[in-house]
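=== Structure Prediction Worksheet ===
Name of assembly: unnamed complex
Input type: mixed (protein and possibly other molecules)
Chain count: two
Listed entries:
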Amino acid sequence: MKRIPSKTVERLIVYRRLLASRGDEQSRHIYSHELAGLARVSAVQVRRDLMEAGFSGSPSRGYEVEELLDSIDRILDAPDGMKAVLVGVGNIGRALLSFLAGRGLKIEVVAAFDSDAAKIDRVISGCRVYDAQTLPERARAMGAQIGVIAVPGPQAQAAADALVEAGATGILNFAPVPLVVRTGVHVEQVDIMRALEKVAHFAKQEKAREV
Amino acid sequence: MKRIPSKTVERLIVYRRLLASRGDEQSRHIYSHELAGLARVSAVQVRRDLMEAGFSGSPSRGYEVEELLDSIDRILDAPDGMKAVLVGVGNIGRALLSFLAGRGLKIEVVAAFDSDAAKIDRVISGCRVYDAQTLPERARAMGAQIGVIAVPGPQAQAAADALVEAGATGILNFAPVPLVVRTGVHVEQVDIMRALEKVAHFAKQEKAREV
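=== Predicted Assembly ===
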C-alpha cells in the first residue's frame, strides 16, 4: 500500500473522529464542505485527502458516511487491531493507562514496564506492570508493534532501543528528547513541555500587543 | 517585538533545553554544528533560527552558551514568569499538575477548575481545585494568561470561552476537538489519541513492508 503523507493521516484521523461522533439523527450522507466545516479545513483539502486515501465519493449526493468510515478504517487500522506496550509508569504513564483503558480501541495496551521494584507486578487500570529488564522478550512474545515511552528524558533512548529490539515498528515518545531509531520504525513525539512553553511565548506576545 | 514563526519558536525551546542540560564540564562555547547535532537539525537551520531570534554569535569561536541562553530566555519568556490555570482535573489533568508542580518553571499553575463537587476544594500536587463556575473572575483576579484545557471534548469549547473571558491569551488544549477563539488568543493542541492512531497506522505500514 502506498505511503500516505503524515499530515493527511492526521486529518483522516480527525475526519473519522468527527464522522463517528455525529448523532444518529444526522443524514447518512455528508458533503465535503460539511466535513470541512467540522474539521476546520477547506472543502478542497477534504476532497484531496479522501482521494489520496483512495476514496471516490459521489459529489452530487455527498459521501456515504458509513462507507467513508469503513474506508478510513481500512486505510488507518490493522484489521485485527494492534498491541502496544507502555514504558514508564510515572504520572504521565499512569494517566495514559487510565485514559486508554476500556475504550474498546483498536490499539490495546497489553503490558507496562518500569524499573522501579515498587511498581513491578502492580496492575494499573487493568494493565500489569513488568520489570523493564524483561521488555524485549516479553513485548516480542506478546506481539506488540507499538511502544509508548513515558520515562524521563535520560532513559528514553534505552527504552526505544529495547522496543525496537522487541520488534516494535511504531513509537509514541512523551520524553522530551529526540530518539534515534533504525529505518523502518516510525517515531511520533508528543512534547508537552515544549507545547506549554510555546503557548506561554505566544500568550506573552499577544498580551504585549493588547496594551 | 516581531512575531517569530511557530516552528522557530519550537526549535528555540529545544535548543534552550539542550543547552541547559549540558554538563558543567562542557565548553562555555558551542558551534552551530554542535548544537545542530544535539537537536538533530542542520547547522544552517540553527544559525538561521538564532539570527531570527536576533542573536548574532561569533562563528569563529562559536556561540557563548550563557549569553545564548539569556538571549533565548528573553525572547521566549515573560520576565516575571507567567501564570496558568488548568481546567479539568481528570486523569490527564492530574498528571499535568503533578508533572508541572515544583519544577521551578517560569510558568506556574496557580489554580485548577472542575465542575465535579467531589474534586472542588481538594489540593492536588499543591494546586487547589475551584468550582469551574468561578473560573472567569477567579482566573482574571489571579492574572492567569495561560489556560490548559484537559476536559472531555464536549466541554472544551465552553472551557475555552471561559478562559478567554478571563483574559487568557494562550490556551493549551488536550481535548480532541478544534476550538474557536477570537483573534489575539493563541491555541496549541496536544492530541494524544491522534498521535497514537498515527503511530499505529505507520507501524502497520512498516510491518507490512518487512514481511
